[in-house]
Structure formats: C-alpha cells, structure tokens
Amino acid sequence: MKEIDIRQEKRFTDYQSKKADMLKADIPIKNKLIIRKILRPLLRCMLRIQRKFNHFHVELLNEIKYTNKAVIYAVTHIGKWDFEIINEQITKPFYILAADFININKGFNGLFMKLNGVVYVNEKSNIDKHNTKEIMIRLLKAGNSMMIFPEGTWNFSENELIYDIPYGTASISIETNTPIIPIAIEQYENRFVINTGEKIMPDNSISDLTQKIRDILASLKWEIWYKQGICKRNKLDDDYWNGFVQQRVMEWAGYSMDEQIINTFVPKEKRTHLELCEKFGFDKIPLRYRNIQFNKLFKEKYNDERR
Question: Mind telling me which PANTHER family this protein's record contains (predicted)?
C-alpha cells in the first residue's frame, strides 16, 4: 500500500472514531446551514466551470422542485460525474453520503466535499454504518437536506434499471419524517440527462417505501431511455458492456473495481439464487453478477440482514 494511502486509512479511522465519540457523548450537530447557503452559489459556479471545461452538456427533463424543509435526494448512480452534474443543478445546500473516503477526501476534491457538506461511511463496518445513520438522522432533524445514492455503487448491470437497494434510505426518511425527491441520471458520452420525480412522502412500512423508491427511480430512468430512442442490437459491438465499464472506470484515476464489491447490496434471496446457479453450473448469469459472485470480498461482506 502506498504511503499516501496509509495516511488516508489513518485519517479515515480517526474520522470514524470522531463520529462514534460524538454520538457517545451526545454532542449536538453544529448547524452551519447559513454559512452553507452563502457558499452554495460559489460551489455551483465552480461546478459549472468544471462542466464546461470538460465539454459536458446537461438536459433536464423537468425542474427540481424545492421546499423550505429538509429533503432526501435519492439519486441513481451511473459513474463518477453523477454527483458533480446533479450538484450543479440543485440550488439549495445539502450533505452528501459518500463511501470512498480514501480517494475522495484529499486535495481539492476533499476540500470541495467539506465545503459542500459530506458524511463518509465505511461500508465494511456495521458499527460505522450504524453511526453514520445516526449522524444523518441528526442532520435531517436539524433542517439539513441529504443526498443519497441508494444503489450504493455505479450501475454496471446489463439489464437492471436500478440495483436492489437496502432499507437505509427509507428507514431514515420514516424516522425523521423527511420526504424523498427521486432523481434519475443517464450519461451518453458527454451528454447527461436528468429526470426528477414527484416528492415521495414517508409511510409506516420500510419495505414498502424501499420498493416504492426503487420502482419510481426505475420509471424515471426508463423515461430517459424512451426519450433517447431505440438502438438496434446489431449496431452495438460484441464487447460493448466491457467497453462501457472500462470507460466509466477510466473517468476516475485510482478507482478500483473492488469498490463495486464493497458497496454492492445483494439481498439474501438473490444471493441464494446465485449460489444455486454456481452449484448446478448454470452459465446464463448476467456478467455483472458473474464478476462479483466468486469474489472473496462479496462472500465476506453479507450477512442475512438488510441494513
């Protein structure tokens, strides 16, 4: 491991300890909402300059609707640029839930995330995931909005509009009585298309709300695909999927495909299905699952409970 990564690991450990100590001592969240409202136009301007420098174009199928109260932005995930592109479109400040502390929290990116507002989570630690959830609940109750990517990682699937999502987003929404604004994004080379849905109000069932979030995000993404039009299969290269994945990975220097394993949620029933396919030699498994099911990180990560 590189020396800089070792230092980052140490910083991440300290960051997790600080969260735990804050919760243990019941230290209240410092609400810097006024400061972040002042910074918001500057951050959006910086993102706009970056987008134009990269020759990215954005198409909004509809406008994002705002309220004076906290909301949870639940966003689909296709690649590195999702956060920057959608962030520029949102006029009000929010915190982002992020998993890749090692690559993100350094240099200019780390400073930008800090100014924006960020909560990092260690996906390999159940304790830190619990602590992170409690921090997010406190932030929402203090009037801060949150952005969450419920899929947890970039969607590299050949046939799933939206990955399976854990109960976390719905659970936090219900516990804080915070509405959810669903947002789907797709990337076509240098063009990004954003489709925003109607506000989802929390209800009493975590499982039902989780399914509703996934269904609505899938519908929003399908609307983007429908608008994009039909592409004939014979116009695609035989190796199209691998090329698509490689293109996404190359957009972020230092990105490891291990992040796909660590941050991927696969429910128990689907894991059982994959195990049976492996046992009986069924080879028609989608490439995405074929690439992760034999991975040691995948087999070590999951227990039988959604978190």
Answer: 1-ACYL-SN-GLYCEROL-3-PHOSPHATE ACYLTRANSFERASE
Matching residue, tokens 């069924």: 282
Strand 191-196 relative to strand 118-120, pairing: unpaired
Question: How many CB atoms neighbour CB 2 within 10 A?
Answer: 8
pTM above 0.70, yes or no: yes
pLDDT tens per residue, range 27-45: 887 777 888 899 999 999 9
Tokens of 141: 């109750």
In 226-262, which positions are buried (b, 16+ CB within 10 angstroms) versus exposed (e)?
Answer: eeeeeeeeeeeeeeebeebbeebbeebeebeeebbbb
Q: Residue 146 pairs with which residues in a beta bridge? A: 72, 95
pLDDT band at 8 (very low <50, low <70, confident <90, very high): confident
Do residues 152 and 166 touch, judged by C-beta distance below 8 A?
yes
Q: Where are the beta strands (DSSP E) in 4-71?
A: 57-60
- 63-115 pLDDT, tens digit per residue, is 888 878 999 999 999 888 999 999 999 999 999 999 888 888 888 889 999 99
How far apart CA 306 and CA 166 sit, in angstroms, is: 6
Task: Show Cβ contacts of residue 162 under 8 Å, excluding neighbours closer than 6 positions.
Answer: 76, 151, 155, 214, 217, 218, 221
Distance of CA 178 to the CA centre of its chain: 18
Q: Which residues of 17-32 are buried (b: 16+ CB within 10 A; e: fewer)?
A: eebeebeeeeeeeeee
Which helix (H) or strand (E) covers residue 120, if one does? Answer: strand 118-120
CATH number of this structure's domain 3-228: 3.40.1130
DSSP H helices in 177-295: 206-228, 240-250, 258-263, 268-279, 287-293
Tens digit of pLDDT for each residue in 246-289? 888 888 776 777 777 777 788 888 878 777 877 777 766 766 66
- What is the distance between the alpha carbons of residues 192 and 185, in angstroms, rounded to a whole number? 7
